[in-house]
Amino acid sequence: MVRRARALGLVVGVLVGLHVAVVAIAAEPLSARDAEIMRVLDRYMDGLNALDLEAHVATYHFPHYRHASGEIVVWQSAREAIPGLDVPDDERRAALRAVLEPDWHRSEWTRREIVQGDAEKVHVATRFVRLRIDGSVIKTFDSLYIMTRESGRWGIKGRSSFAP
């Protein structure tokens, strides 16, 4: 009986050790995944703040889905998502500023939390603020970003936002 208990203890110990090793191995790629997700979101916001629509839309995967103001819009391409890509920079920037808010200076993330995910898709609950040049808040919006890994690259596949 003692030998059986020791053997059982040994088997349980090995299984626990294997489980810990598997969890440790699985955790490393997830943290790399999460860091890449945050880099994509940083590039998205940096492109917006620089009024660089090419950099901004480069973070999307297409088709790209946006749910806001009670509608779901599906864009098949960067040109469809940002029709002004062919417009001269000055005109494009003025139009973008008008859409964001007349006194908009920049936007910032105030929350980015991965709430679900696997190796190919991640849901990120976010909050961002639109700011004036003095740093005062114009508006705050909650959103859910759907990030996907396609063709070896993470990008924004869709967004559900309370922003207009």
Outline the secondary-structure elements.
Elements: H1 2-49, H2 53-57, E1 60-68, E2 71-75, H3 78-81, H4 89-100, E3 106-117, E4 121-131, E5 137-150, E6 153-161
Parallel strand pairs: 1-6
Antiparallel strand pairs: 1-2, 3-4, 4-5, 5-6
The low-confidence parts are 14-28
Q: How many DSSP E strands?
A: 6
Using the 3D structure, state the CATH architecture: Roll
Q: How would a crystallographer describe the biggest sheet? A: 6 strands, mixed
Write a structural description.
With 164 residues, the chain is an alpha+beta fold. The chain has a single domain, classed as Roll (Nuclear Transport Factor 2, Chain: A), CATH 3.10.450. The protein contains 4 helices and 6 strands. A 6-stranded mixed β-sheet has the order 2-1-6-5-4-3. About 9% of the residues have low confidence.
List keywords for this structure.
164 residues; single chain; 6-stranded mixed sheet; alpha+beta
In brief, what are we looking at here?
This protein has 164 residues and is an alpha+beta fold. The protein is 42% helix and 37% strand.
